[in-house]
Design a protein that fits this description.
Elements: E1 2-6, H1 10-29, H2 31-34, E2 43-45, E3 49-53, H3 60-71, H4 74-87, H5 93-114, H6 119-132, H7 140-154, H8 157-177, H9 192-219, H10 225-236, H11 243-251, H12 258-263, E4 278-279, E5 307-308, H13 310-317, E6 324-329, E7 342-351, H14 355-366, H15 378-382, H16 386-390, E8 397-405, E9 410-417, H17 420-427, H18 438-449, H19 455-466, H20 472-489, H21 498-529, H22 538-554, H23 558-571, H24 582-585, H25 591-603
Antiparallel strand pairs: 1-3, 2-3, 4-5, 6-7, 7-8, 8-9
Helix pairs in contact: 1-3, 1-13, 1-14, 3-9, 4-7, 5-6, 5-7, 6-7, 9-10, 9-13, 10-11, 17-20, 18-20, 19-20, 19-22, 19-25, 20-21, 20-25, 21-22, 21-25, 22-25
Length: 621
């Protein structure tokens, strides 16, 4: 029997993508599916729906949990994280060793609960003792040796299965379903096969029963007494409601009354071909919650109930495979960039179009290395839509991003409809977001997608730069790209043309003015060092001055910024440029752009000038 899933709503489009991903993974990784031809695959994309052959239902639990085991492999994630840690130039060897110790200790505690007598647990304990015995700065060779031995221990099949299952259970429970079926706390010790069997029993078998009922209805348009008995036996053999009740009631009917009885039952809210046997509630898909005081309409059945079928329930249980998870800095965008605190969000791209287009868009997002943010995705999504932007039309791209908390009954949902000026910005092919430091890039992008001025984020990041925990060039790019995007917002600017790029060159000229002051401070510091034992370096003086200028810029105090800057020019023996008056009259750029660009130059943001950057020096006009 062919089962349909229409994707005219993002709630059903997510499991539609999940089905295709599971099949693609099975074909690539499971020997029994590897040689199956495209036209013989049980899951197919049609013009307006995903078509599923009912013969594949029994395979879905195995596909789903093996896919999740592969995707969330603890060993692979630890390997990637620790390789990145060893390569980091921003942490001291002692900090690296401390993080490594915490990682080993964390997993050791978990594994000890399940495998207390394993010899490898003893080896891991000795590895932890070895780390604690290192008193001096660890060498690279010591660190690499410890990491290799640790990863080798995690390669144990039992260890890998248990740790990865814990990760899977945690995010399915906390973010999607609560304690349903195999996710109940009393079943936390289940192995991989146990999870597969529970999914088969609790999610697949009810769908197979519904399929059998649908097949009976199609086969017997005019039921007989014998066919009635077959239907009654089918329903009463189930241990689930409402099937037993239906069976008892149908047994008392005349055969010719059965179809009218079935037609009087509620239908699924998403797929009307299916009978509704359950309600859409938090156990079915927890991200129904709404932030704030508004209670979700289905929490604990306190409000209007929404009937759904077992088919939709099964699909929603597999929905996490259709999403892309990524991390972002906590409390973005107005955050302290110095804290390495992250939170996980789940993302989906929805648009008007065929299932194939939606599947392709989400795979483009999912294939981004290390779950990078949207700036590398959006150009791909809108490549075939560029002609619409040029014709002043909006491609209907919707980016959904959410995070759920089961205990708080809350979901934080960001629903982005990509603004037209952002489409123009990305479709130009001249975006520089990819060169920004990740913390400022993610915060910057989130705000421009909401048509919010990202200047506050830039001020926060500049403070991190002053403290030596950010990149001046990233701050410069943020100032420049923010000005371009703000110009594209203005009515009448329909494309990111050469004239706009040339005007943006003025921002580079401003940053060069800041760099000129920095070099002057360095020269003065060098000269003073010849006649005294100690003098603070030019870069340290520049950072102190940048902090004062940043405070003036953030508060919008143009006069204080102007007075401080003029004194700087005079102190280093440089001529005060006429362009400085722009701070007051804002003829070419706004005050925030002028001050931000100047501060980035003062901090060294000029040191990676783009090859095609042309300074629009007003003195050359």
């Amino acid at each position: 029997m062919k089962l349909k899933l229409h994707i005219d709503d993002y709630v059903t489009a997510i499991p539609g993508v999940a089905l295709m991903r599971l099949q693609e993974w099975a074909v690539a990784n499971l020997p029994e599916w590897r040689d199956i031809r495209l036209e013989e695959r049980p899951i197919r994309l049609r013009d307006d729906h995903v078509e599923v052959d009912s013969s594949v239902l029994d395979h879905l639990p195995k596909w789903y949990f093996l896919y999740l085991m592969h995707r969330y492999s603890v060993k692979r994630r630890e390997q990637e994280r620790l390789r990145s840690l060893l390569a980091s130039s921003y942490q001291t060897p002692r900090d690296k060793l401390s993080r490594l110790r915490d990682s080993i200790n964390n997993n050791l505690k978990k594994l000890t609960n399940y495998f207390p007598n394993s010899p490898k647990i003893t080896v891991m304990q000795h590895l932890l003792v070895e780390i604690k015995s290192i008193k001096s700065e660890p060498t690279d060779e010591q660190m690499e040796s410890i990491v290799e031995r640790y990863l080798d221990l995690l390669s144990d099949e039992q260890f890998e299965e248990r740790l990865t299952l814990n990760v899977i259970r945690s995010f399915l429970n906390n973010n999607f379903f609560g304690q349903t079926s195999m996710l109940q706390l009393t079943r936390s010790s289940l192995n991989l096969q146990g999870h597969i069997e529970y999914m088969q029993r609790d999610f697949v078998e009810p769908v197979k029963l519904d399929v059998a009922v649908r097949q009976w209805l199609d086969t017997w348009p005019e039921p007989t007494a014998d066919s009635q008995k077959d239907l009654v036996d089918l329903l009463r053999n189930s241990d689930r409601n409402p099937y037993k009740r239906w069976g008892d009631e149908i047994r008392k009917l005349k055969p010719e009354e059965i179809h009218a009885y079935i037609n009087g039952k509620l239908r699924c809210s998403f797929e009307e071909e299916w009978l509704a046997t359950i309600h859409f509630e938090e156990m079915t898909f927890a991200p129904l919650g709404i932030s704030g005081k508004h209670v979700n309409f289905n929490w604990e059945h306190a409000h209007h109930q929404m009937p759904i079928s077992n088919w939709i329930r099964l699909l929603l249980f597999m929905a996490p495979a259709g999403l892309t998870s990524f991390t972002r800095y906590k409390q973005m965008p107005f955050t302290n960039f110095n804290k390495d605190e992250y939170e996980t969000f789940y993302c989906f791209v929805y648009r008007d179009g065929t299932p194939e287009m939606i599947y392709g868009d989400n795979n483009a997002l999912d294939n981004m290395e290390h779950n990078e943010s949207f700036e590398r995705l959006i150009p791909k999504l809108i490549e075939r839509e560029t002609y619409k932007a040029k014709r002043r039309l909006r491609p209907n791209i919707q980016i959904l991003e959410f995070q759920s908390d089961i205990d708080m009954k809350k979901t934080v949902l960001y629903d982005y409809h990509v603004p037209r000026h952002v489409l123009i910005y990305f479709s130009s092919g001249r975006s520089n977001l990819q060169y920004m430091h990740r913390p400022i890039r993610e915060a910057f992008l989130k705000l421009i997608l909401e048509s919010i001025d990202p200047m506050q984020v830039i001020w926060n990041y500049l403070r991190s730069v002053i403290q030596g925990k950010g990149y001046p060039y990233s701050a410069y790019l943020a100032v420049r790209e923010r000005w371009i995007i703000e110009q594209l917002k203005k009515e009448g600017i329909r494309e990111m043309d050469a004239a706009l790029q040339k005007k943006a060159g003025y921002i580079y000229y401003i940053s060069q003015e800041g760099a000129k002051i920095r070099r002057g401070l360095e020269r003065r510091a060098d000269k003073q060092s010849e006649s005294t034992d100690y003098v603070s370096s030019g870069s340290k003086r520049a950072a102190g001055i940048a902090y004062r200028l940043l405070n003036a810029a953030r508060s919008g105090d143009r006069q204080l910024f102007l007075d401080t800057t003029i004194r700087l020019y005079l102190s280093v023996g440089e001529e005060v440029p006429i362009s400085l008056l722009n701070v007051l009259h804002e003829e070419k750029v706004d005050f925030a752009t002028w001050s931000g660009a100047f501060i980035t130059g003062l901090l060294g943001g000029d040191q990676k000038e783009s090859a095609n950057e042309k300074a629009d020096n007003p003195n050359n006009e």
